[in-house]
Amino acid sequence: MAVVEALTQATSPGVPAGRRAAPSERWGRLALLAPSIVLLLGVFLVPLGIMLWRAFTDPHPGLDNLTWYVGDRVQRQVLFRTFTTAFKVTVVCLLLGYPYAYAMVAAGPKLRAALTLLVLVPFWTSLMVRSFAWVILLQDRGPVQHLLTALGLGHPQLIRTNLGVIIGMSQILLPFLVMPLYAVMSTIDRRLILASSSLGAHPLTSFVRVWLPLSLPGVGAGSLMVFISSLGFYVTPALLGSPRDSLISQQLYTQVNVLLQWGRGGAMGAVLLVVTFAILAVLMLSIRQSARRHTKASEATSIEATSIEATSIEGAAR
Amino acid sequence: MSVDVSTPGSPSAQGALSAHGASITLKGLTKRYGTATAVDAIDLEARPGEFLTLLGPSGSGKTTTLNMIAGFVDVTSGELLIDDRPVHSLPPHKRNIGMVFQHYALFPHMSVSENVAYPLRQRKVPKAERQALVTEALRTVGLAHLGHRRPQQLSGGQQQRVALARAMVYSPRVLLMDEPLGALDKKLRDSLQLEIKRIHGELGTTFVYVTHDQDEALVLSDRIAVFNDGRIEQVGTAEDLYERPSTLFVAQFLGESSLFHGVATEGADGAGVRALDRTLRAGRGHARAGEPAALVVRPERIRVHPIDGAAADQAGVDQSAPAGNAVRGRVRQEIYLGNSRKLAVEVADGTQVLVRESAGDLSGSRPGDEVWLTFRPEDAAVLPATPSHDNTPTRTAN
């Protein structure tokens, strides 16, 4: 969620970051955070540490597991496939989610409630249930295949393919894109569009030059959520995909649960973690860079601005 | 007050940015939302280069009218002409109108210069010319040095100046303003009013300005259209409206008024109203005889004559009555205002009549005193008490 925050804050450089709290106040806040910190440490960070530890110790201390992973052509292919699948899912979600979020903002209150419910109901439904539902829909001689055949689009294989995985994952991850995008879009002042048209811009130009740039923070936040969630998806690819098209989480499962190669599993997890962090870091840095450029300009000139305002009032009064 | 805010380079700014204002004609213009009528068959004309203000309380239809001129709101019926050309079917971006919004509506992701350049880009103005025009427009509003900033880094007043520069940089023939100073504090509002007036003088563009602030309307406008309940009550110069209001609404909305309620009469000597057991005479009026009406006088046109209490009791009330329009009352309240004072005088039917005395001409009466109030018939008007739009709409100076 910190990612979302960073992305959305970047657009409003005029808004000052939260003020510094007094030391006692800060300890008070930390105390309130203690239960969740303990929980995160105990059930997330410690197991993560153990996993990483095993990557370099199990069965022998050293870099054996890592060299195996980097050296294995199949594993490299799987890693690449995982990232391209995540990318495709993100693009599909974006293509579906952007107009959807726009419709939510543009709709009247009743339609908006209906559209919101339509996004959230699947979101509240168990991941397992939804994945199985897709198995039924996409199966050979299933409803989707029938429909495509009836439409004269041939007899495409959907289940046990990468396409099927992308379809299922896109549907499941769509709310993660729609919700942040909707949140950002609903803060856009729609009078800006009126202003744009009064200034002579065609509606399409208004969209491209005003609406789209202002909605980009939502696009960034939502896409990142979808992309990163896609990287670690297990249930849906396992049910809808085939072992030939497996993603990293399936390989990881095989290593740990079937082959009992805890060390190799740990190494795979470590690589996924590092690559994901690297992508995040690059994105965050570029966002922070652009945000810093804005704030620097404002800090340097805010004093000047007030003095100019004062002199112009005097000038006008005279 | 003289308006002399010379900006460096304003002569060339005049050259680059001035435009001949267009005329705007509204004929029976109507906007209905379902069964509710927001604007009810109004007729109005803005002359080329004129500063026309649409004044009225909120919900009176003035903003809806402005939005119809801008093209943001569809016209239900009636005609809307700019330079005698019907525009009601043109989308906003084809009307070549400048618009300034109450909350500035500056593009937050563009710098000040980019904001001002935006309409020029839409018009495919070449880059060199574009830059020159942007610089001129920002200079005209006194912000030439802030072009590189983001709108959020400017104060409210500065943002509204940028909005103004953006709306005029392409020399539209009509500039619409929707309560542009509504979000600013009083001092800033006053200074920006003068600046808007100066810019109007420099540009020669037709300005249509929406406000609910009567002082702002008086300062800025060539003419004012007073809106009430989706209709125009009266159109005229500030002086027309203040000195010769044609409806009770205008009399009460613009400045302060003292009212005497009664029944209209018609005599050989002009209009009158039968109120407080006497006939009060007015120089003008258009109420029908026998119908409820009110006689309207501006508080500063009423004179106060203290009554010597003991003498009045002995001689009987009316013997001390001055000639002409005279009403007896008791001073209830006094408000000291420095250069003047206001008195609230209660008359026989319980009405509080407002009187304003200038500091150089005080009657010396105190709260509790019995007084005579007198006024000249030529300072008074008899206006129908029923809402004006049951009668034929009246207009002056058009």
Automatic annotation (TrEMBL), chain A:
Keywords noted in UniProt: Cell membrane, Membrane, Transmembrane, Transmembrane helix, Transport
Membrane topology field: Multi-pass membrane protein
The keyword Membrane is annotated on this UniProt entry: yes
Keyword Transport (UniProt): yes
Intracellular or extracellular location(s): Cell membrane
InterPro entries (UniProt xref): MetI-like, MetI-like_sf
Entry-linked SUPFAM superfamilies: MetI-like
Membrane-traversing stretches: 30-56, 78-101, 113-137, 163-185, 206-235, 267-287
Signal peptide: none
Domain (ABC transmembrane type-1) ranges: 79-283
Entry similarity comment: Belongs to the binding-protein-dependent transport system permease family. CysTW subfamily.
PANTHER family hit by this protein: ABC TRANSPORTER PERMEASE PROTEIN, INNER MEMBRANE ABC TRANSPORTER PERMEASE PROTEIN YDCU-RELATED-RELATED
Name of the molecule in the record: ABC transporter permease
Species of origin: Planosporangium thailandense
